[in-house]
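subagent[fold] <- orchestrator: predict structure for attached chain, return tokens only, no commentary.
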Amino acid sequence: MNQLDALRQWTTVVADTGDFKQLSISKPQDATTNPSLILKAVQKPEYRPLLDEIVKKHAGKPLDEVIDRLLVNFGTEILQIIPGRVSTEVDARLSFDTAATIARGERIVALYKAEGIDTEKRLLIKVASTWEGIEAARQLEQKGIRTNLTLLFSFAQALACGAAKVQLISPFVGRIYDWYKKSAGAKWDEAANGGANDPGVKSVREIFNYYKQHGIKTEVMGASFRNVGQIQALAGCDLLTISPELLAELAASNEPLEHALDAKAAAKGDAKQVSYDEAGFRFALNEDAMATEKLAEGIRAFAADAVKLEKLMQESGK
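subagent[fold] -> orchestrator:
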């Protein structure tokens, strides 16, 4: 049994890609996309016709609607290949606007429904884990729209998401690792901070254990991996969303894989229950320099790629 097959025993494997032609190789249960992945895909010759077709078909409509239609087009193609759910992201530029996030999420759902997709079972609306985004997700969930809270870097964000009863959270393992490695500079010891001691891995483990102990139903999906060691150290997490390159690396290894996270064992923990109001959440996030910086950086990066995607569409329509 290779490591990818071993991982599937305990964890739902999710592909992190906009390149749906790769999905038949790794055979994931679910798939996640984001503006950066879609931008990367449509710059490939085999996908550019999809963008051109959407732009031509919906000429004259607002650019933000045309982008949503492109995202839904990719998502619908992905759902023809995978048996589970696809995550489609709301424009990061709406990360601090609850009402606009809700409206955009509802439009994306409507577009999927028009394609005949059972959105309650097969779609997750991705929203940034800001206070406003979490509140939008709370309201979307109450309407039966399932959400995936992304750009999550801190325990405070995870607690707020659990309280909002969101379907799933995506803590970013690799970006947490990046921040601590950069912060340490020449003092960074890769061996001492690898595997179970990786700061990104430790963050996900703390959230996973807390959720299981306190009966929080929100699914935990580790994301943003830099190496297979991070994935191996989180075997047993509810879900892990993995790039095609790292999926291939796992599939090529026949080394034994240990069951690192165990929900039953975690349920016996003794972590004190914590909750935040808005002021408490904002202060806790502010106290976490890594989470504050990486959340802001992530929103900026996704927003910048949304702008690049808009420019490609405008060029296509000329």
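orchestrator: received. Logging for downstream: The radius of gyration is 19 Å. Residues 289-316 form the longest helix (28 residues).
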